[in-house]
Write a structure and sequence with these properties.
transferase, two-stranded antiparallel ribbon, single chain, mainly alpha, Rossmann fold
C-alpha cells in the first residue's frame, strides 16, 4: 500500500517520484507533483480485493505455472523465464 499510494508524477517532465523512497529534489518540483487516481488508497484496496478474490481460481487453472522471483538481477530473471518458455506450459482442455 505504501509503495503504490505514495507514487507521484511530475506533469512537466513526466519524471516519477515516491514521497518516501525517491522524493522530488526541490520544493518547486514537489509542489507540482500529481498522484494518479489509481494510486489513491481506496482504489488500491479495490484492486487488491479483486486480486485476492480471483487468485485462487487462477492458481488452480494454471496449476503448472511457475513462480518467478523477480527480486534478482534482470539477466537471471530473463534466463529463468526463457528456460520455462522453452518447455511450454500444457494447455487445459475443456
Amino acid at each position: 500500500m505504501e509503495r503504490l499510494s505514495q507514487r507521484r508524477t511530475d506533469p512537466v517532465t513526466g519524471q516519477r517520484y515516491h514521497t518516501t523512497f525517491r522524493p522530488a529534489p526541490t520544493p518547486e518540483i514537489q509542489a507540482r507533483l500529481r498522484q494518479n487516481p489509481r494510486d489513491q488508497e481506496e482504489n488500491i484496496e479495490k484492486r487488491l480485493e479483486t486480486y485476492y478474490r480471483n487468485v485462487k481460481d487462477l492458481e488452480d487453472f494454471y496449476e503448472d505455472a511457475f513462480y518467478v522471483n523477480a527480486d534478482q538481477d534482470p539477466y537471471v530473471v530473463f534466463e529463468f523465464v526463457e528456460s520455462c518458455i522453452i518447455k511450454p506450459l500444457p494447455c487445459r482442455k475443456f
